[in-house]
Structures are given as structure tokens and as C-alpha cells.
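Notebook entry, structure prediction.
Reason for the run: the old model in the group folder had no record of what sequence produced it. Starting over properly, with the input documented here first.
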Amino acid sequence: MEKTKRLSATPQALALVQQLANEYGELMFYQAGGCCEGTQPQCFRKGHFYPRTRDVSIGTINGFQFWIDHDLFEYWKYSHFELDVLDGFGAGGFSLETPKNKTFKINYRIFTQDELANLEHTIPYHQYMIQEKEKPQ
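New structure, fully documented this time:
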């Protein structure tokens, strides 16, 4: 049985992610747990933002890691995250979609009991980095 994914994206978000990847190369996403832009997902070039050691990846969008602040993950771990995009300038300003007058956002929904029993595993950042170092060059 296939595991339940914690993360998905709308077709509009996938198209924008592909556009950004074509322009900037490898990407990564980070969603913090603070105020202001903190709960708005941010898109960065891979290596231009470093999650903290306990932050968690809940999956990938077009192959790019989606990281979440550890405390925010603890709060939302029973929810599915759907990456979406809106027209307009959001609360942030550091995310790569901002100059395109776009804003990433998350649509949440609570997992069903069946989904909860079959969730994909997450990976903390420190464990991800160990795996990255062990990859053959």
C-alpha cells in the first residue's frame, strides 16, 4: 500500500515552481512558525537558506525539499499541506516568486484516520545532511 503524502501542490503552484527552477536552478522551500511572513512558505535557491537541525522535511515539490519549522510541524503534523499560489505581493518579500507578483500559500486539511495510519515518514534536517554527505560524489 502506498504511503499517504503529507504534501501536494496545485497545478498553478507546480507551474510556478518549474518556472522558478528554470530561472534559478535547484530550489528549496521553508515554512517558519513565526509572525508576518512566518507562516507563508518561502522559496529559495537551494543553499541560500539553511533550516535548523530539528526542522522537518515533509516531502518534495518537483523534487525540491519542503522544510517546516519543528514547532510548526508539531502543531500541524496531523494536516496535509497543499502548496498553492496567489496573485499579489504577500507578507514576505524574500521568496523567489515575489518579483513575479505571486505569493505561495498553504491550504491545510486534517488527515483522515486511515491516512494517519499510513503517513509517509518525515526527515529532520540533521539526518538529511548526514544522508547528503554519504551520497557518492
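Summary: The longest strand covers residues 79-87.
The old model has been moved to the deprecated folder.
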